[in-house]
Amino acid sequence: MLDPVKFKDWEIAEEAEKNLPSVEEFREKMGLLPDEIIPYGKTPKLDFIKIMNRLKDRPDGKYIEVTAITPTPLGEGKSTTSLGLIEGLGKLGKNVGGCLRQPSGGPTMNVKGSAAGGGNALLIPMTEFSLGLTGDINDIMNAHNLGMVALNARMQHERNYDDAKLESIGLRRLDIDPERIEWNFVMDFCCQALRKMEIGLAEGKMNGYPMTTRTNIAVSSELMAILAVATDLKDLRERIGKIVLAYDKKGNPVTCEDLEVAGAMTAWMRNTINPTLCYTVEHQPCLVHAGPFANIAIGQSSIIGDRLALKLFDYHVTESGFAADIGFEKFWNVKCRLSGLKPNVSVVVATIRALKMHGGGPEVVPGRPLPDAYTTENLELLEKGCENLFHHVNNVIKSGIKPVVCINKFYTDTDAEIELIRRLCKERGVRCALSEHWQYGGEGAIELAELVIDACEEPTELNYLYPLDMPLRQRVERIATEVYGADGVDWAPLAIEKAERFESDPKYADYCTMMVKTHLSLSHDPTLKGVPKNWRLPIRDILEYGGAKFLCPMAGTISMMPGTGSNPAYRRVDVDTDTGKVSGLF
After folding, report:
1. What are the backbone dihedrals phi and psi of residue 571, each rounded to the nearest 5 degrees, phi first?
2. Which of 262, 395, 464, 572 is deepest in the core (most CB within 10 A)?
3. What is the dihedral angle through the alpha carbons of 502, 508, 511, 517, rounded to the nearest 10 degrees?
4. Is 322 annotated in the active site?
């Protein structure tokens, strides 16, 4: 084991890969049959349909979710904690595994990094994980862009041909409204220059339909959102057919099925339903499946991944993107409802630096050194900031799931600071563990693992925040007041108009409510830290995703195409031309 204070993540990953057991050894360890493995080198896919058909009657293992407090812009280590917990349970001799999201190439080559965890709580093989893995995102890009190609080509042909000509080639006129195009193109990098563009500018009627469009990052595609919530290939195909690409001039939706492209899009995505097998640096199995945006989508690994892992492992660890106000709320009220699965435990990750920020500490800016307040003892800031921690803990308690607070320890944290959090948790009757998985791997996570095992033995009664028959605006009001702590909701005229339409149409009765707001505050305002008081949640618009069946109330703006910063990660990534090894990933 390498010291993460001295060695970089890619160096730790490289060392751990030297003695990684073979795929065949993992297959036998996991009890899989030879034809249930789809070869992809060190990272095979698992045949979801074959395994589930064989194991459908096997009891599920324990279901453990990892969430967090409101983070600093640096993140507080949910993925690192998830992997550390898997390693800790492994040290205790448990049959354990997990399922995490696949990282996007945009953040990997930008400022955030690969989302592979960190230190000695890391996912391997790190290079493959960070650079495309088994091609799921590439398949989603191709399927998505095929939908856009079909749409623009149909607009060109309907412009150029009369009804008789269209009928002669088996097409009916869709009469697409060029002012109501809902889709766009996607790519898997952060390119702010493509947020708005004009296409079809070449002269001649056969060079496409001129239109204003944009390119979004691939993981924001509705197809990625669908992959995360689909239950099988049939469900995936049906949802793709219902994607609304545009509207016609009478206001009717134009779907992928209308364009007769849904089947081909599904063909591109047929292999994406099979999760990929990766590993912790201590060689426990961890599935990787789906990677949806945490704002407009569910922000966590797939229902398929959880269902499969719960059959393969006695303890299954997954995580939800962002903090417990966004990620856990969607896990609780959307993912669990769609999957029918009942979690045993939710681990709430907290760092002392984030708690100090919520207590009134100075601004934390990515790329700049942390102010001294975060690396020196300050019990006053810390205690005040714990209000944010217990707000999130209470959200977990409302769901009926057992919470376990994890203090994700940094080497600058003091004993007095750690003891303060322990005391405050004890006073509230909340389990709390110190975990040093980043530095010590599984050995550093044993206390956390033991508390999680203990919590798993208690009965769980999952209580949804709202019933499915509750109207959209009442759902949003309940989420805003009971989960975020708002005094109420203010609806813009456009949002009211859309809400009235959705509430009056039975078609939308089973659509999920997928809230959109900043992850940097419990409120809609990222500058408001701690637990803001005396505020109302403004909803300016509602996005509709017909295939995923999401209605997304917008509490602020969101960019579907992040920008690349001035000091991106790709500046440090390179390849050893003698060995082919990649360096510089983090």
Report:
1. -65, -20
2. 395
3. -10
4. yes
